[in-house]
Every structure is written in C-alpha cells, then in structure tokens.
C-alpha cells in the first residue's frame, strides 16, 4: 500500500522501518528532518517536508508522536495531514493520547470522507524494534479491516476494542495496571534484599508461579543492578497517567493506587530520574532505605 508515517521517535522509527521491509511504499515525515533522512538511507522510501506532503496520495497515514498537542499539530495544524489526506484513506494514530481527542479527530475525519483509527501500542522500544507490539484500536470495523494488514508489519496482536476512543481507553487500563505491577515488583525486590534473601534466587522461584509478569521477567535484573537508562521514561508514564486521571474524573473511576504511584514517580523526577525507565520505582525505595541508615 501507499503509506505515510509521521513521527520517527523511539517507537515510530522502527515501526516505519517494518512497513518498508514488508514491501509497502512508505513516505516519512519527522519534525527533525535529519532523522527522516537517516531513516530513508536505512530503509529507502521518501521524505516529506510536512505532514500534509506525507499524506498526499497515501491510502493509510500513520502517526506516532508525543502528546495531544503534537497530534493536533500534525493533523489539524498548518500543513497538517488532514488537509491533504484523500477520501477513502484511513488515518491511524499510534500516539498514546486522550480518548476525547480521538473522538474529535474521528468526527473530523468522517465529515471529510476518510477514516480514523486510534491505535495506541504496548510493548515498548524493544517490541517496536522486534515487530512484536500489541495494538489496541478504536474505530469502525471497515476502517480497522483496511489497516490491520498494514499494522501486522510491526504487531503481534491487533484488536478492535470498540468505536473511536476505545483504543485509548484500553491503553489507559494498560498503564493503570503497569503502575501497580511495577510498584509491587519494586517492593518485593526491596523486601527480599532487606530480608537477607538472594533476590535473583527469589525471582527464579516466584516467576514460575502466580507472581510472574513481563516486568518481572524483563526488568528485575536491571533493577537490581540500578540500571535505568533504557525503556519507557518516567516522564512519559506520568503523561499517560495524567490522561488516565482526566478520564477518571469524567467516568467516576477511583484510581487510588495509580495516583499514589504517580506521586512516587514525581519523587523520582526530583531525584533526577525524569528519563529513567519506569522500573526506577525500585531506586526510590532503595534511596529511602539508605536515608534511614
């Protein structure tokens, strides 16, 4: 298919690469043009000067940027993709953004004769590089059917969750669960060390039982080593949680644990860990223990 990919960050760069390797005709746009040129030298394809240029003539336009305002800029802003995307095409937003924005953009798309699918992803940088992302989608069945084979280039699982906004709501559930899981793992490892146990031996045993999780399997070693210069940054997790809290105000959900963990992440930012991996909740506990020594 003729595709466009807008946003070549940590996630978008390899995702667009998988599209090119799968044989799609890919044109890319990135705010920093040098990164788009680097992508082109690695994967081929073409570079566009603006999102509007990228979307011109594309059957599927995909985006993965940072925040709601960034999504607005590349869609509705000056030289945004919505100015040139053709009727019958579909715009796919992989950004973790608000459900409110997804519904708004879906309405604009419908009015202009093209489709819109909100499709946030889970799996992190490694999942993007390996083409093993999980994609949670909101939109019409027809639009989803058109773009699912395209997303298959970098996803191990794509699922339509409901109408516009449903993908973003599902990603919120994902982040709420993650916050609790990472804090629980951090407290467990912290407790094991204080109890004089070998934490690696503990993980080897309990990871074969009901306590097992992706975080335990993939993050316990770096946590114990105090290594956090990788993975999903604290500042982005806090952005995602703020979206969850805004939505919870609207739907009446109580999120006491997520709010508490967000406060812990604020402490990590104060420690200089704004760009640390979310597993740095363990660093906060260890720092607290040293402070009591």
Tell me about this structure.
- With 293 residues, this protein is an alpha/beta fold.
- The protein is built from 13 helices and nine strands.
- The strands form two sheets. The protein has a six-stranded parallel sheet with strand order 3-2-1-4-5-6. A three-stranded mixed sheet has the order 7-8-9.
- Helix 8 packs across helix 10, helix 8 runs parallel beside helix 13 and helix 11 packs antiparallel against helix 12.
- The longest helix has 29 residues.
- It is globular, with a radius of gyration of 20 Å.
Determine Rg (CA atoms, Å). Answer: 20 Å
Find the count of extended strands (DSSP E, 2+ residues): 9
Largest sheet: 6 strands, parallel
Q: State the helical fraction.
A: 40-55%
What is the residue-averaged pLDDT?
Answer: 97
CATH architecture of the largest domain: 3-Layer(aba) Sandwich
Strand order across the biggest sheet?
3-2-1-4-5-6
**Morphology call:** globular
> Which residue ranges are poorly predicted, with pLDDT under 50 across at least 5 consecutive positions?
none
Domains counted in the coordinates: how many?
A: 2
From the 3D structure, determine the CATH topology of the largest domain: Rossmann fold
- Distance separating the two termini: 61 Å
